[in-house]
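seq:
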Amino acid sequence: MDAHADALTLRVARVLAPVTVLGPGRRVAVWVQGCALACPGCASRDTWDAAAGTLVPVTALADRLADAVAADGLDGLTLTGGEPTDQAAALTALVVALRERRPGLDVLLFTGRELSAARALAPGLVAASTCVVAGPYRRDRATPGHRLLATANQELRIAPEASGRYEDWLAEPEPPRLQVFAEGDGLYLVGLPAPGDLDRFRRELGERGVELEGVSW
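struct:
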């Protein structure tokens, strides 16, 4: 890892693993903190505030993720948020550092920017990603049957060498769309919720005597 990476920090909302609904295989997912795009209907409003989350040195996070990949047999990294391209230098260094430890690691990037804008703002990060999902969330164009595109305006770019793996995963019949993680007093619903899923989740928990004190949407 070079000296440039040693000086970089990344503002992170959360890290969860193993994630199986945001890309093929068993993955570790990083939600970065901070997003000024503020798409109406976003399920992760808690990641918007650029002053929240935790500031983490890239080197420390790279070590943590590499250890998780090795220990848990993970085969991919998913970057979401928040808006990853707002922290492009740090995330690019993170991907480079991880691939030094785990060559060929699959990297899936979600960005709320159009692909052309993401390439202009974060060329190294986009180029280093195996798969990119690009475009803002548009709740009036929801695509609840797609595993990676939340709305029909979004664009999917997959590296040719990984196209077969992704196409097989996308074509799986009746796959699970959402996962629930519990950490401390918090519950995280991971995946691409269809319209109404989040409110239904909160309502059904309430019917079982579990009241959520705050939600991210």
